[in-house]
Specification:
By secondary structure, this protein is an alpha/beta fold. The protein has helices at residues 9-38, 52-61, 75-80, 85-92, 126-139, 158-169, 217-232, 261-269, 272-282, 288-311; strands at residues 67-71, 116-120, 146-151, 174-180, 183-184, 187-188, 209-213, 238-243. It contains ten helices and eight strands.
Length: 333
Amino acid sequence: MTADGSAPQRDSYGQRRIYELMVLMKTADDRLSKGIATGEFMCVYWPSRGQEAIAAAMGVSLRPDDQLVTTYRGLHDLIGKGVPLEEIYGEMMGRSIGAGRGKGGTMHIANPDKGVMLSTGIVGAGPPVAVGLAMAGKRKGLDRVTVVSFGDGATNTGSFHEAANMAALWDLPLVFVCQNNLYAEMTPTSDTMKIERVADRAAGYGMPGFRVDGNDPLAVRAALEEALTRARSGGGPTFVECVTFRFRGHYFGDRMPYIPKDQLADALAADPVPRFRTKLADEGTCSAEELDRIDADAREAVEAALRSVLDAGSPSVEELERDVYATPINFPG
């Protein structure tokens, strides 16, 4: 706090930016759901609606040169790290404007220029890749941290165990971010692990583990900044568990019969986006007019991106041989 009791300017800007990202993530997810449901367009995607606070906190905490490995449920993570909406939607809909020119699809969106190195389609496949990226950064002496985002179910895989063990053993600049939405696909976490706190697993690897409210972006940001500082100073990896909820099914169209209605109702009542908006308004961080403008800007940005994508063409036949080899090979005619 400043001498007059007001919040520091940096934090006011940071909170406003968090809300901008959260609203954009929510609006982008909602628009996909609407477009698919009405038959306006077709694509496959795994909703992240409800988990916006985590990705927005990552978006304001990570530096441009920090690297991110995320999953197929990564729409919000991609937006937070700065991947243009046109590239995200374009890849989802198989258009040439996509991040991979429409060849990778929803599960495989990457933009190294923004630090997004990989989106994985296999549960638990991200952590080993993140270990390699973090090792490269350390060996090159770079002041760079790698963050890997995954769900609670991924912590039950052997690949996660091996990655966490090696990251801790080698003191790598890596942050494990578990977006615990309480369901591994369609199975509640209580049916897949005996422990209640996923973060407790960190102790087995000799690294710190934090459990925070994943619907509170400021709590997530505080934990991330501590973990990032530790990683940059050579202290090694940290495990951050963010407890949240997934408002939509495992995939779009999933009717979610496995989620109790009262549990879903409670989660919707604690929606992190309107909750954070109310906080900003009540504390005077943003006026109602500012917040309304942020909401409107998000809608305009999403619609503009969608128009560009729907106007773009599909990948050409020539794309089949692109991006296969680092050095093009000229086959005999």
